Amino acid sequence: MTTEYDLSWVVRRPRSLMNDAIHVQGLNKTFSHKSALVDLALSIQPGEMVALIGASGSGKSTLLRHLAGLACCDRSNGGQVQVLGREVQSSGRLNSQVRRLRADIGYIFQQFNLVNRLSVLDNVLLGCLGRMPRWRGSLALFNREEKQRAMAALDRVGLADLATQRASTLSGGQQ
């Protein structure tokens, strides 16, 4: 039995592509003749918080992997993905600069791989490593701005009060 989930209803009002933080048009992905994403259209404005909710196997992780450039859409009718005004992929082909784009795209895998012995804040700061000199990263020398941005991110998701707590003490939902 093949179940198809059409998430095209997500877009409710026309928006200018130039203003979208995320813009997806006509995204299709199949795995062994089973459709995971069908003609998906999605627009998210900068600063907008969106919850991606659906049953197991409905394509949530597949969509996120496409946004981060970790998966390619179908070539024949694949569609287009843009993040922060830059093309991630189009018609099943990743942008040649996708590795550079990923430096500006955060993606947390389902298996979070947090460093349990580090604090929650330190785990967030690890996301800066790709944008700083290796010697600073090796010594964990994060500057004030990086720490402030990490704290702001924790505050945004309601975890600022847990910043100094070991990651191993977080509940599954907090992770």
Automatic annotation (TrEMBL):
Keywords: ATP-binding, Cell inner membrane, Cell membrane, Membrane, Nucleotide-binding, Translocase, Transport
Domain ABC transporter: 39-175
Name of the protein this chain belongs to: Phosphonates import ATP-binding protein PhnC
Compartment(s) of residence: Cell inner membrane
Record keyword Translocase present: yes
InterPro entries: ABC_transporter-like_ATP-bd, MetN_ABC_transporter-like, P-loop_NTPase
Main localization category: membrane
Bilayer disposition of the protein: Peripheral membrane protein
Record SUPFAM superfamilies: P-loop containing nucleoside triphosphate hydrolases
Any one Gene Ontology molecular-function term assigned to this protein's record: ATP binding
Annotated Gene Ontology cellular component terms: plasma membrane
Organism domain of life: Bacteria
Gene3D superfamilies: P-loop containing nucleotide triphosphate hydrolases (3.40.50.300)
